[in-house]
Amino acid sequence: MRKPNPSRSLLIWPPLPLGVYFKKKADQLPFPLNQEGCRVYSLARHAIWNACQSLQLGSGDVVLAPAYHHGSEIEALIEAGLQIRYYEVNQALEPDPESLQALITPEVRALYIIHYLGFAQDAGFWRQWCDRNNLLLIEDAAQAFLATHQGQPVGSFGHMGVFCLYKTYGIPDGGAVISTIPPAFPAAVAETGGWRAFKRHVNWIAARRAEVGRIHLFFKPIVTWWNKKWHRMRGQLTIEFDMGNPASPPSALTNYLLPKILDDTTAERRRENYRFLLKHLIDMVPAPFASVPDGASPFAFPVEVHDARNFLMQLRKRGVVGLLFWLNPHPSLPVEDFPRSKRLREGLVALPVHQELTLVDLQQIVDAVMDVRVKKEATIGALV
Length: 384
What we know:
Keywords: Aminotransferase, Pyridoxal phosphate, Transferase. Pfam families: DegT_DnrJ_EryC1. This is Aminotransferase class V-fold PLP-dependent enzyme. Belongs to the DegT/DnrJ/EryC1 family. By secondary structure, the protein is of the alpha/beta class. Helix content is 37%, strand content 14%. The chain has a domain at 26-179: 3-Layer(aba) Sandwich (Aspartate Aminotransferase, domain 2), CATH 3.40.640. The chain has eleven helices and 14 strands. The strands form four sheets. Strands 2-10-9-6-5-3-4 form a seven-stranded mixed β-sheet, sandwiched between helices. The protein is globular, with a radius of gyration of 20 Å.
């Protein structure tokens, strides 16, 4: 096994290549950006809030939402005036129709589904289910921009489809929404996005230059810690749940760079990267993600591990910066009532799979994971 190079820093988030400014604009925009009713805000949580207003979802209304969630989408729904009634996902990370049926009361207005990690739920089935039950379907495609299901764009089945553009490309921000009643255009003044674009450029360099990668691996945890502390000092929710101003438009740099960075090969390149990692690490991948549908646009590569925090720390020493996928649920969730979601939060680790990774990068990820795994097994063997 090759010794992993800990000097190069590989992140979940796609970086921003330095040469993007010299690229031509894309000839065609992908869904939903090619739709007249599409609106783009700074963040996907802003898109959710605004679309709830246009669909007249609000005070007294209840939405069925998954217990396995990020939290920012739940905060946006609550800020829009809705009440949350949680459901547990099944082994395939999908809602269970019978369990959902038991949750329906006259106050329930909508079903919220999440296309986890860029893998499509059966949105066509859920649209029919919602129509039969007189409910609105909200598709969270924040991690599934560019994904398709049965030849149709993910996010196009529901009454609302929400997308997080910067989870797919290294732009500063951008949350898009398409709904049966288009929401208002963002009215606030746009930020430049310069600092966030700079950080994404640094991420790109850190994946290619050892000296920058070493510095990046050292300082990134410190910056993350300070951001969380700053939010607590200001009496705000954590940065993951902070709503901000829902009228915020995308930054000026996002508007400028997005047409240049769009590439119709992105989803396929992500699938290819995913298949490479799957070939070497398939025994660590949970069943719902153990194959790659042609329409998937993977956001990250998931592995299930014990002692996930230590696993991530050891990966970081080898230059691979993963994350414990959705560790912190929204405060409104009664965590113990949803054991499967709790187990997922405690043991599902997400690794990089984005389109900017090279074959050398992918091999570094495989070598790092295998090295940590071998050392862990050797340690357990010595204790037995």
